């Protein structure tokens, strides 16, 4: 079975481009050009130079000795938190801004939940001198204030989404509306492996630099390219797509996706799409989606703004449906504890999104000599207020 996208834009049953007529020219222009542009030697050169000189790649593959000892297994952390802007998001925004320039776009829009993608988009727009508008849910604007300030310092306009749950899906709705109204000069930088084809594939390709580096780094450290498992948190799923990418068709590498169970999978306050989702269409693609019996989207909940999304990207929906990926749901409480554990054991404060991936070891048992690579997708600066309130650290 092939776990990459097919020529029609589908991963198994999931994917495609379910878009209003008005968006067809934009999406089609991108679809016809994205692979051709990405393969141009000049594009590759500029992309790789920026990743090295501006983002700070390659990011280290760090053996977490004390964290490993606690769980009796070998745990490596892929340090995406050390990227410029503090998360993996910038790998994709660098790629997409170069794509937008080659397609003659002068205005950039984006959506953001945790704010990391918004910051990464505002950063590359400042770098390239392009106008930047970021849509963000009103609830997320409150809980991610430092990132809102960063975006504004970088010259972006932050627009509050006031509809629905006022979180990520509502910000995405607003961004799509803007794109429909400004089709010719605007490129929409989607921050995850969601949206209409070719976005899930394009974003996964830009993020695949993560697993490409892991293969080289693990070979140096362990004498083998393949770990036993790669682990990542999944909201939309771009950091996960990045670390899975070069292992998708390699059955000896286990793929573990960790979702946000919020206050419990069946508590009514959760974002565990694999457990609760049914097939549906959201933001231009067919995927697994939390919804009511009559197809209305259920409001997701997670303590982490970046996992607070009612669906997953079509690549991940297919990994779940096919059984290639093992999906684990982690509650707020377990994630917060794991974040504090890593801070105290390794001196690394992770983003709360990443903390979900770190929390699997209490329940999921591994063999003693298993090598596990966790994508440490972002750093915890943006979440300090949440950590402070949760653990009463003030």
UniProtKB/TrEMBL annotation:
Q: Which InterPro entries match?
A: Trp_synth_b_CS (IPR006653), Trp_synth_beta (IPR006654), Trp_synth_beta/beta-like (IPR023026), TrpB-like_PALP (IPR001926), TrpB-like_PALP_sf (IPR036052)
- Gene Ontology CC annotations of this record: cytoplasm
Recorded GO terms, molecular function?
tryptophan synthase activity
Q: Which cofactor does it need?
A: pyridoxal 5'-phosphate
Q: In which pathway does it act?
A: Amino-acid biosynthesis; L-tryptophan biosynthesis; L-tryptophan from chorismate: step 5/5
* One Pfam family per UniProt: PALP
Which parts of the sequence belong to the Tryptophan synthase beta chain-like PALP domain?
56-378
Q: Which UniProt keywords apply?
A: Amino-acid biosynthesis, Aromatic amino acid biosynthesis, Lyase, Pyridoxal phosphate, Tryptophan biosynthesis
Domain of life assignment: Bacteria
Task: Locate the N6-(pyridoxal phosphate)lysine modifications and list their residues.
Answer: 89
Task: Name the chemical reaction catalysed here.
Answer: (1S,2R)-1-C-(indol-3-yl)glycerol 3-phosphate + L-serine = D-glyceraldehyde 3-phosphate + L-tryptophan + H2O
Which E.C. number(s) belong to this protein? 4.2.1.20
Top enzyme class: lyase
Q: How does it assemble?
A: Tetramer of two alpha and two beta chains.
Family under the similarity heading: Belongs to the TrpB family.
Name the HAMAP family for this protein. Trp_synth_beta
Q: What does this protein do?
A: The beta subunit is responsible for the synthesis of L-tryptophan from indole and L-serine.
Q: What is this protein called?
A: Tryptophan synthase beta chain
Task: List the top taxonomic levels of the source.
Answer: Bacteria, Pseudomonadati, Bacteroidota, Flavobacteriia, Flavobacteriales
């Amino acid at each position: 079975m092939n776990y990459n996208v097919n020529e029609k834009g589908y991963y198994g049953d999931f994917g495609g481009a379910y878009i209003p007529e008005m968006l067809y020219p934009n999406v089609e222009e991108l679809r016809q050009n994205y692979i051709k542009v990405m393969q141009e030697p000049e594009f590759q050169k500029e992309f790789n130079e920026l990743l090295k000189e501006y983002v700070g790649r390659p990011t280290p593959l760090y053996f977490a000795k004390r964290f490993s000892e606690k769980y009796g297994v070998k745990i490596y952390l892929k340090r995406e938190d050390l990227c410029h802007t503090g998360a993996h998001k910038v790998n994709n925004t660098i790629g997409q801004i170069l794509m937008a320039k080659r397609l003659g776009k002068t205005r950039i829009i984006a959506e953001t939940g945790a704010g990391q993608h918004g910051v990464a988009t505002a950063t590359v727009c400042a770098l390239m001198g392009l106008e930047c508008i970021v849509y963000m849910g009103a609830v997320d604007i409150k809980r991610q204030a430092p990132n809102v300030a960063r975006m504004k310092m970088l010259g972006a306009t932050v627009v509050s989404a006031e509809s629905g749950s006022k979180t990520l899906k509502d910000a995405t709705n607003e961004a799509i509306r803007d794109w429909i109204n400004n089709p010719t000069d605007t490129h929409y930088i989607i921050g995850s492996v969601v949206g209409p084809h070719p976005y899930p594939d394009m974003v996964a390709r830009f993020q695949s630099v993560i697993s490409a580096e892991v293969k080289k780094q693990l070979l140096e450290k362990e004498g083998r390219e393949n770990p036993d498992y790669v682990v990542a948190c999944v909201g939309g799923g771009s950091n996960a797509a990045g670390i899975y990418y070069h292992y998708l068709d390699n059955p000896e590498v286990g793929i573990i996706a960790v979702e946000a169970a919020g206050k419990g999978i069946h508590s009514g306050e959760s974002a565990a799409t694999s457990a609760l989702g049914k097939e549906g269409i959201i933001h231009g693609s067919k995927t697994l989606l939390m919804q009511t019996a009559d197809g209305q989207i259920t409001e997701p909940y997670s303590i982490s703004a970046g996992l607070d999304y009612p669906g997953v990207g079509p690549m991940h929906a297919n990994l779940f449906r096919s059984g290639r990926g093992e999906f684990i749901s982690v509650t707020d409480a377990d994630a917060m504890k794991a974040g504090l554990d890593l801070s105290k054991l390794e001196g690394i404060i992770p983003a709360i999104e990443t903390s979900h991936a770190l929390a699997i070891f209490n329940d999921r048992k591994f063999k003693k000599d298993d090598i596990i690579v966790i994508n440490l997708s972002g750093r915890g600066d943006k979440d300090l207020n949440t950590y402070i309130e949760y653990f009463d650290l003030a």
